[in-house]
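Researcher: Here's a chain I'd like modeled. Treat it as a single chain, no partners, no ligands.
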Amino acid sequence: MLNILIPKEIKDGETRVAATAETVKKLIEMGASVVVEAGAGKLSYISDDDFKQAGAKVEKDIKKAFANADIILKVNQPVKNELDLVKDGSVWISSMVPQVELDSIKKALDKKITLFSMNLIPRISRAQKMDALTSQSNIAGYKAVLLAAEKLGKFFPLLMTAAGTIQPAKVVVLGAGVAGLQAIATAKRLGAQVEASDIRPVVKEQVESLGGKFIEVEPDENAEDEGGYAKAASKDYLKRQAEEVKKRIKVADVVISTALIPGRKAPVLITKEMVKSMNPGSVIVDLAVEMGGNCELSECNKTVVKEGVIIVGEPNIPATVPVHATEMYAKNIFNFVSCMIKDKKLNLDMEDEVIAKSLVVKDGEIVFEPVKELLGGKK
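Model: Modeled as a single isolated chain. Structure tokens:
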């Protein structure tokens, strides 16, 4: 029987957990035994009793739990101290950016731990129900607008009052991926005027369908990779885009930046000069702050005021919506795990595109090419 472990998250500020009572029950129905670390669901409002009623064993001794686990399901990337507890040859599945987790990957190689990253799930139709990046980005885009609205000293919607007409807030969204599109939709629902910019011209229709105005710049060719993610733009394009964005930012009340390139430092889209040009009291929410930030002046895990502008650098926005963030992530990871359990046994079918493309390390060997290059081809 496969032993699956759901440990408590140890990252500061993390409220999510990798399973719910519903997904635990489904895992058990597939023939697995499930152990949940005591208190793992507390910050997501899932009690130990909830997990017990679903059929899981709740374990206080995490060393014992790790030592017996065949598969570990987590939200965040592994750290070396955790991997020291994991038994050799086990499987670890969580969100991670492999290119910045090299120490953990080296440890996994030493112990022949198989590592999967939920960040690498390919964006194909069959894998939509496993796409944790999409589910969590939806939450980030939604909550970013609420954070901006809370900080902004203005209303979002147009209001006709006895004291006069209140003009709607002007919101600029940088990056029209999942988070950006959700930010556009949420800002529009709150009544703001919304403009959006992206290096991929194909998203113009999506932006406009949500009521936003697309900031058009002559595009680069091939601005999107085969997985549907944005590629690094040319210097010429970024210069032209910056000029257009600069004009909008100058009069914006809110700027929400969401631009990320998988495995690389986030591009700087909002310079100090741009911030300085904004009206005092304007708000920037930098969703890329954990990867260096789209705003030159943002600070991770801090809300700061620079040049009179409020800059929000909240690093883990999905964790501020723990109930639904956990519910969605737990379903994503269950759907992923379910495609590798056959007849109550672990079956890693390397012909399966979803399994093959989300794999980082297997049997003491690096599978994910970008990491292999960073480590000089080491096994």
